[in-house]
Amino acid sequence: MRIKSALAAATVVALAAACGSGGGGESSSSSNEPVKINFLSLAWQQESVAANKQLVDEWNKANPNIQVTYVQGSWDNVNDQLVTQFAGGTAPDVIHNDSPALSGFASDGYLLDLGDKLPAELKSDIPQAAWDTVTFDGGKGEQGVYGVPFLQESQVIIANKKLLDASGVRVPTSDNPWTWDEFSEAAKKMTKSGAYGVAWPMKSPVNKTLNLALSFGGTFFQSAGGKTTVKVGPEEREVLQRIHDQLNKDKSADPGALGQGTADPLPSFYEGKFAMLPAGVFLRQQVVEQAPEGFEWVTLPAPKGTSAQQGAVSQTLSIAQDSEHPDEAMKFISFFLNSTNQVKLAKGDWLLPTSQKAAADPALTTKENGWDVATASAKNLVVAPFLKVNGFDEWRTKIATPALQEYFANKITIDEVSAKLVEDGNKVLERYQR
């Protein structure tokens, strides 16, 4: 979903040792001891970790009978870790993850369906489009809600204000974003004097391109007769072709950034080697922290195609099916994700809250650091089609990532990348649908 900062190896040891609801604290109904709940958090940025720990401390002081232990996890290995813990009955009670991971865990029976446990206030404050990202078939042919979505990521453009202003192009707004054609023209106008117009770091190209492809109606997957297959037609090719052309036809995109991770091009960005960096909204934090004194930058909305839609992936909190204290866990989640606390979490992670009340908070609508543009982009988020695809993770890592990297590097054609995504991809998905 986002840049995953690797944590120390000790984290894995701590995670395995600290988690475990199967042999967890005794219920308050059978003992005077407080109920003990383990909360696996994947927060990694300094502000975000601090916000998470502060909220846990607040809860523990106010709720002596339900004590929460904060367990630090890592995005780098969380799903492998959870597979082991679920199988061994040692999974944490409350689990932080992202929505693409929930489908498989839900179908395997490892997560609790929260549908009848959600408090009315929490349920009504989060729009249905966000709930759709956590609603899956739980393996019994019935749809269930397997997490509470609380933070989402959209794509924006971070631009060098000096180079943007010097180009003379129309500056897009949230109400009037660039079309993809305007974006391409702007990138060409900013390509001069040794600087490129844009940089596309594509070390991890899949989620970014699939989410942007929705602006042309590109879904990449289709379902019929209970079977899901990969689809790469005209709608899916639009964004792929446009990024490829900026790199290889217009020469308006910096080729040196192609193999880099999202944040890797930032030093070159500060030096003025390119003018625009399409990225997730969270990258604004690193710009604020790292940009040299006097460097001016702005946040612009992502370009639109036939619509301004983007695919949404949510960060989530779930409850393990085997938790001995699901009701207490739900009470903690309701506190942790109320609108006031979602403001703190969004600011700590530089992402978008799902809470409608939180999104209206002045702290998340200010022009400072592009919060107004970032928060406004949330209205264009729709459920990413790949969230519902069993086997997507393997398709992404084994098929789509290398194929897209080859295509953007101009080593294969649009027809060849389409064939790889579809033909090789369907072989992967077939194994998950037998």
Question: Explain this structure to me?
Answer:
The chain is α/β, with parallel strands linked by helices. Helices cover 41% and strands 17% of the residues. The chain has 18 helices and 16 strands. The strands form 5 sheets. The protein has a 6-stranded mixed β-sheet with strand order 2-1-3-14-6-15. Strands 8-11-7-12 form a 4-stranded mixed β-sheet. The chain has a two-stranded antiparallel sheet with strand order 4-5. The N terminus is likely disordered.
Concise description?
The protein has 434 residues and is of the alpha/beta class.
Count of helical regions? 18
| Poorly predicted sequence stretches spanning 5 or more consecutive residues | 1-29
Helix content: 40-55%
What about the largest sheet?
A: 6 strands, mixed
Strand order of the largest sheet: 2-1-3-14-6-15
Structural class: alpha/beta
Characterize the quaternary organization of these chains.
single chain
* Radius of gyration, whole Å: 22 Å
Distance between the termini: 28 Å
Describe the global form: globular
Integer average pLDDT: 91
Name the beta content range: 15-25%
- What is the β-strand count? 16
